[in-house]
Task: inverse folding
């Protein structure tokens, strides 16, 4: 019999579950959850929060009291953790995280975790995972590794130009990332990211662009056309001494197209209104002109027909990642795999709401031959859970913002720590 890695054979008594209302990187309230086990092990988790959310995501609980934080307070979610959730988790001994997460989902009782709040539930789930790993004296990445998976260090995808709802500029595409796929190891990949970021800053300043930052730490210049941003990126990659492309530093895009799809079904790009077919044609041109190896949410979450066409047209040579369309939901990902929609899934723990369901989504991807691209949110804390999740999941790719700003670099620095402690662990994209 094989025992899933997240299973701990020993029963654990949870003695404390508590939460605080803290700030995220966008100055909005979020939760910090702390779990204590009998024997004294404690673990803490910070809860991320998105801005360009898919409509099928697990739902955050916000207070709606406009006299505090413009209605965005999370006091009720904090109370849910300290009260109902703590009572339930102190009630029995737990052998596995799956048992805990199943109990949380059942306690909530809704399809989308809206009653207790997905922000409350995910914080508890992450803190419990950490506590159980710690109780067994194992590194989180190791504890999260399923038996059929070889851990690996991922290609970091640095978001260096921000647009869409993450920046107040006219750029409709949300994220322009650089991916040092050709780097020999993780440390060199981080170095490439930081050096290209510095070269891009100099290039922007030299051309008279502002070098202010968007929500994920990338620059937010006053550009509208995606191709203009891509030209700047290719120049910055060369200026920093790297080769643009998969042998050196490639480019990845997250247009987050659900955000610029209009009511008439057309996509608004730099003032133009494009049909789904025209949008696909635009991506075909972009990928033949620029070293773009990955496009996430190239089309909107409800444009499944367009997604099928996009996949038929570019799926052989470009990684097509579903974010808003899949929402880390194992059932939706399975449907997409059956229907030939995309060839990869974004993985966000708070999008589905528990670590167990996230691991399930990743397992569905592996079985279906879909790549897994692990992701932060635009609102982050210094929590580094996703770095360990990516390594343990053997995913080979992680996006967690620019190589700047504390909440973003915390994750890259955690990868550096893991790499230093595991000199034989492979680096790079996973074979699918
Ligand atoms: P969000 O954006 O965290 O603001 O939802 C991230 C993404 O679209 O990938
Ligand atoms: Zn996205």
Result:
């Amino acid at each position: 019999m094989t025992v899933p890695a997240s299973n701990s054979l020993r029963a654990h008594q949870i003695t404390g579950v508590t939460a605080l209302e803290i700030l995220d990187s966008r100055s909005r309230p979020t939760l910090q959850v702390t779990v204590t086990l009998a024997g004294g092990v404690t673990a803490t988790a910070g809860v991320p929060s998105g801005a360009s959310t898919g409509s099928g995501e697990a739902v955050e609980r916000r207070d709606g009291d406009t006299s505090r934080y413009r209605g965005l307070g999370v006091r009720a979610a904090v109370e849910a953790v300290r009260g109902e959730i703590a009572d339930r988790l102190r009630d029995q001994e737990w052998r596995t995280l799956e048992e805990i997460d199943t109990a949380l989902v059942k306690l909530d009782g809704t399809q989308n975790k809206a009653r207790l709040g997905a922000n409350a539930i995910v914080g508890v789930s992450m803190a419990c995972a950490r506590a159980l790993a710690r109780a067994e004296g194992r590194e989180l990445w190791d504890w999260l590794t399923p038996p059929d998976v070889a851990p690996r260090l991922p290609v970091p995808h640095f978001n260096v130009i921000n647009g869409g709802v993450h920046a107040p500029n006219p750029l409709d595409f949300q994220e322009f990332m650089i991916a040092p796929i050709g780097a020999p190891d993780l440390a060199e990949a981080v170095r490439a990211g930081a050096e290209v970021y510095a070269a891009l800053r100099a290039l922007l300043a030299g051309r008279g662009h502002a070098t202010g930052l968007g929500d994920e730490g990338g620059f937010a210049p006053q550009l509208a056309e995606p191709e203009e941003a891509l030209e700047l990126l290719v120049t910055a990659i060369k200026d920093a001494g790297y080769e643009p492309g998969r042998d050196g530093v490639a480019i990845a895009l997250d247009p987050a197209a659900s955000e610029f799809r209009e009511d008439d079904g057309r996509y608004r790009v730099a003032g133009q209104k494009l049909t789904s077919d025209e949008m696909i044609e635009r991506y075909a041109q972009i990928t033949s002109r620029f070293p773009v190896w990955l496009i996430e949410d190239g089309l909107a979450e409800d444009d499944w027909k367009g997604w099928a066409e996009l996949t038929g047209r570019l799926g052989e040579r470009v990684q097509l990642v579903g974010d808003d369309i899949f929402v880390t939901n194992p059932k939706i990902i399975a449907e997409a795999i059956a229907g030939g929609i995309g060839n990869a899934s974004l993985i966000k723990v708070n999008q589905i709401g528990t670590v167990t369901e996230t691991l399930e989504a990743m397992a569905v991807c592996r079985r279906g031959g879909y790549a897994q691209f692990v992701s932060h949110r635009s609102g982050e804390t210094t929590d580094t859970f996703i770095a360990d999740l990516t390594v343990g999941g053997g995913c080979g790719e992680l996006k967690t913002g620019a190589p700047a700003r504390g909440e973003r670099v915390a994750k890259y620095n955690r990868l550096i720590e893991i790499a230093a402690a595991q000199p034989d662990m492979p680096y790079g994209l996973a074979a699918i």
Notes: The radius of gyration is 21 Å. DSSP finds 13 helices and 14 strands in the chain. Residues 50-53, 254, 256, 323, 375, 377-378 surround 2-phosphoglycolic acid (ligand 1) (CB under 6 Å). The longest helix spans residues 186-206.
